[in-house]
Design goal:
single chain, alpha/beta, Rossmann fold, 2 domains, 6-stranded mixed β-sheet, 23 helices, globular
């Protein structure tokens, strides 16, 4: 169905190849997962399948890509629209109409499909992706996850033979992500549609893949193979794979089910060991009875007839990392909006350091509270990274070079002369985060901060957030990333239909929830382990005593030698 023949792509004549000498045939009804670090070329590879690269983005292409016999050299994206459906990273940028139902019908209108067929396909897709209740909603009024599902639906109604998706689950809650992936699985197995997907959250998708294309960066040929083969040596892998490496399982498992079958000996070895207690606040000897940095009392927010939040109470103290979780549309982004003063409460009040955030202006607001929004492009205005960072330093009234230094820590691969709009979704997020952090706000709010980030970058982000909390900052994350929550959150708040339904220490809340539990918690249940790092540390201690058998000795020695974390 898709043939890559010696494909190499570079964007400058003297620059490195982004995709290097790829030779691969992808068959009909195959599910192929593209993995790699932030900026490694995943979006470029996906764009080559329907001719967006180079016909739209530019670039120098050698070799050839053919889809069902049609060469992308001779066929532009419009010539492949009946064969290839593409769901981009930013769904809002691809919408053409105003409402969900209209968007689902638009592609079919362009292809000249009969109205009776269009109507049937729209209804089928609304049901398939759980969009029936949103059919008349304005696309701009949807939450990030709802927009993502609408974008997938708009492509599916045309019944393409190849479906290309760039991080389709990045903005979805765990339940919605499973629904979308299950729907894609049915399309592959029941209808023979070929799916090529790039995704950073491998813990969600690797079990569905038939093959993996692993990109390692400019100038390095891709590794291609079955998921167990690629994941056994890949540097970028989901937590369950790292757990298998720490425990000495060979080959390491790629699913929670496989890991649980091998975890009996590991559980026995850890009897009597418990992970260290994660304090509610990481600030030394905190007085949680003192005035919180952020105080929310009886907060209610309505958008016309829609209730987004109802009577929410929430205090956030210095040193806390509070993860706000819940389904798409539950009210998480609205809560963050009220904390920074961009959303006006219908009832109740919000105080930041004892003041209403809506009354704060300019540098004073930046010092009190900062928000990294779901769409980081909202904060970007300049033509180069250097200009963006310099403007941030001036706005924050901080020393010149502060923003650039933070960005170099988070994303050292980004250069000064790059245009912000040329960055990947994850890189734009890191730039926006650097801009907000330059003012060192007392309260830092992040809306889906790991969207588009690979595992190593998430680790750097988690370390940075832990350091900020230790220095006395308060952090509120609205996120669907259960693995980030397991690594860094001291407290979890779950919001459902505008209400707070759970609020407590991370280990208590996530281990009791099948939906929000990280992979390690699912494998090690009922014991309260959250991360591979916790288990590796415990194995180093357990390994100091006599091993009961060869398997436990292997686990202890592997942990002592590697000390890997998720």
């Amino acid at each position: 169905m898709i043939e890559f023949e010696g494909l190499s792509i570079r964007y400058q004549a003297a620059g490195p190849t982004v995709v290097t000498d790829l030779n691969l045939n992808i068959g009909e009804g195959e599910f192929v997962l593209v993995v790699g670090g932030t900026g490694s070329g995943k979006s470029t590879l996906l764009g080559s399948i329907n001719g967006l690269v180079p016909h739209f983005t530019g670039g120098i292409v050698s070799g050839e890509v053919r889809v069902d016999g049609r060469s992308t050299r001779d066929h532009r994206p419009r010539d492949l629209a009946d064969l290839v459906g593409v769901v981009p990273q930013d769904p809002l940028a691809g919408f053409v109409t105003d409402t969900v139902e209209e968007e689902l019908a638009y592609t079919m209108e362009c292809l000249g499909i009969e109205p009776s067929i269009m109507r049937r396909r729209v209804e089928e897709t609304l049901d398939l992706l759980g969009l029936a209740d949103l059919r008349s909603r304005a696309l701009r009024s949807l939450s990030g996850g709802q927009r993502q599902r609408a974008a997938i639906g708009a492509v599916l109604t045309a019944h393409p033979r190849v479906l290309v998706l760039d991080e389709p689950t990045s903005a979805l809650d765990p339940g919605a992500a499973e629904e979308v992936l299950a729907a894609l699985h049915r399309l592959v197995h029941d209808l023979g549609i070929t799916v090529v997907m790039a995704e950073h959250r491998l813990e969600r998708v690797v079990q569905y893949a038939d093959r993996i294309i692993a990109l390692s960066g400019p100038g390095v040929p891709a590794a291609v193979g079955a998921p167990p083969d690629v994941m056994s040596t890949a540097a970028i892998a989901p937590p369950v794979v790292h757990l298998g490496r720490v425990a000495g399982w060979n080959p390491p498992p790629i699913t929670v089910r496989d890991a649980r079958r091998q975890a009996t000996t590991l559980r026995q070895l850890l009897i009597g060991h418990l992970p260290p207690l994660r304090p509610v606040s990481s600030v030394a000897a905190p007085d949680l009875g003192s005035t919180p940095i952020a105080g929310v009392k009886r907060l209610g927010v309505r958008y016309g007839s829609i209730t987004a939040l109802r009577s929410v109470d929430l205090d956030v103290h210095a040193g806390e990392v509070v993860a706000v979780m819940g389904r798409n549309g539950a009210g998480k982004s609205t809560l963050l909006g009220t904390l920074v003063g961009s959303t006006t409460p219908t009832s109740g009040h919000v105080l930041i350091h004892g003041r209403d955030p809506r009354e704060l202006r300019g540098p004073e607001l930046l010092e009190h509270v900062g928000l990294v929004p779901q769409d980081p492009a909202d904060l970007l205005e300049a033509a180069t990274i250097a200009e963006e960072c310099a403007a941030s330093d001036r706005d924050a009234n901080c020393e010149a070079g502060t923003t650039r230094a933070i960005l170099a820590l988070l994303a050292p691969e980004i250069t000064d002369l790059t245009h912000p709009r040329d960055l990947s979704e994850g890189q734009r997020l890191l730039l926006a985060l650097s801009i907000v952090l330059a003012a060192r706000p007392g309260l830092l709010c992040l809306d889906e901060p790991t969207r588009g980030l690979d595992y190593p970058t998430k680790e750097r982000l988690a370390v940075l957030l832990a350091d900020l909390a230790a220095a006395g900052h308060a952090i509120v994350l609205a996120t669907h990333d259960v693995e980030l929550v397991a690594e860094v959150a001291t407290r979890v708040v779950i919001v459902a239909d505008g209400d707070v339904v759970a609020d407590g220490p991370t280990v208590e809340v996530v281990t009791s929830s099948p939906m929000f539990a990280p992979q390690v918690a699912k494998v090690m249940s009922p014991e309260p382990w959250l991360t591979v790092g916790e288990i590796a540390a415990a194995l180093r201690v357990a390994g100091s005593g006599p091993a009961t058998n060869t398997a436990t000795n292997t686990a202890a020695n592997t942990a002592a030698n590697t000390g890997e974390s998720a």
